[in-house]
Amino acid sequence: MIMEDHPQKYTESEKNTIFQQDFMPLIDAAYNFAFRLTLDEEDAKDLVQDTYLKVFRFLDSFEKGTNAKAWLFRILKNNFINDFRKKVKEPNKVDYQEIETYYNSEEFGDQRYTTDLRLEVLQNLMGDELTTALNSLGVDFRTVIVLADIEGFSYEEMAKILNIPIGTVRSRLHRARNILKEKLRDYAKNLGYQ
Predict the structure, then answer these.
(1) Residue 4: which residues within 8 A CB-CB, separation 6 or more?
(2) CATH of the domain spanning 96-190, picked from 3.30.200.20, 1.10.10.10, 3.90.550.10, 3.40.640.10
(3) Are 32 and 122 in contact (CB under 8 A)?
């Protein structure tokens, strides 16, 4: 049997059905992963939006019946890396008119920050110490912890998402967990764990 080198073509109706059934239910998980990568609510929302646009655009290369979540997370991770590279290459842009307007506004004196409810629930479940320790990890270590321990991906799925060998996934995860354990040692002792 000869395998075709080109992606499968779906009708528009099939594309819409696959997108709605396989990918839309994963939007909260995608946002949580994006937030863990970016550590910023607005950047995470932008990353998810861009990722979902690409998912729909390249849906013909998705093989129905395979792991949609792993495929989605790989696109999201690649978008994050590409965005990071772009930001490193371009200088910071500042709109001084916008800053002046903001400082002269009534909002400046009475700042109120809104938080994402999912983030607030996750932080309440994990505790400030764990959230702080997790966020202090480098992005490579933070990513494997999130994929393995929060999202529940297997080593094989993580290797595909991150485009690295399984041995590197195992090594990075082991190292990340050890770093977290060290960062949380005093906190655990205060709670009575040894």
Answers:
(1) none
(2) 1.10.10.10
(3) yes
Residue type, 3: M
Going by the DSSP 8-state scheme, the letter that residue 83 receives in this structure is H
List Cα–Cα distances, 131 to 22, 43, 136, in angstroms: 30, 18, 8
CA distance 40 to 35: 6
Residues of the chain below pLDDT 70: 1-7, 84-127
Distance CA 152, CA 22 (A): 17
152 phi and psi, to 5 degrees? 80, 25
**Tokens matching residue 83:** 């965005």
